[in-house]
Write a structure and sequence with these properties.
Layout (H helix, E strand, L loop, with lengths): L9 H43 L17 H22 L1 H5 L9 H18 L6 H27 L2 H12 L16
Helix pairs in contact: 2-4, 4-5
Length: 187
């Protein structure tokens, strides 16, 4: 004769599981509310932080020179041309003077002048200057600007545009003793 041991009542098991599910649901609802409260507080803090100070200049997206259509290219060039004419050439002496007149025809110049202009704008179009900005300005002027100016000079003096300009100068030289080189002209 087999002895049967009575097992737990299936109704009691289901009731116990249902109680656990209800407790978990309550905890999840409390956690959801806590996350929502923290999100609201964080959003308010970030908003207050950003409204308390003027961030200054924000860079625009980089032009994708290689795939711009004519109207977009001209718009990007006009912006870059304005910075070169109004800021770069008048402000940066011999470094800017080394930029050849054909710079607009050289992708290297377009890419380089674009980041130079944007970085200049970030550094100099701010409402107030902080110590870290001052160090960045020094870095821009003593390291980045001269390095790029040399690249731009090499790019715009060794190209076919520069060669044609030099050929025209040589043909207009009045003194054969100077070999057409203005640096050799006697004062």
């Amino acid at each position: 004769m087999a002895v049967t041991i009575p097992g737990p009542d299936p109704g009691d098991l289901i009731t116990g599981i249902m109680l656990q599910i209800a407790q978990h649901a309550e905890r999840l609802a409390l956690l959801d509310q806590h996350v929502a409260d923290l999100t609201a507080r964080l959003t308010a803090l970030i908003g207050a932080r950003n409204s308390d100070r003027d961030e200054g200049y924000r860079p625009v997206p980089a032009p994708q020179w290689w795939k711009l259509g004519e109207p977009e290219r001209e718009e990007a060039l006009a912006r870059l041309r304005a910075w070169v004419d109004q800021i770069y050439r008048p402000s940066y002496g011999h470094l800017a003077a080394a930029l050849g007149p054909c710079w607009e025809q050289h992708p290297l110049c377009l890419f380089g002048l674009d980041w130079l202009m944007e970085l200049w704008s970030v550094l100099y179009l701010t409402p107030e200057r902080q110590p870290h900005a001052l160090a960045s300005q020094a870095e821009w002027q003593t390291r980045l600007l001269p390095a790029l100016a040399e690249q731009l000079y090499l790019e715009t003096t060794r190209c076919q545009h520069a060669q044609r300009t030099q050929d025209r100068r040589l043909s207009h030289s009045a003194d054969p003793r100077d070999g057409g080189n203005p640096a050799h002209r006697r004062l």
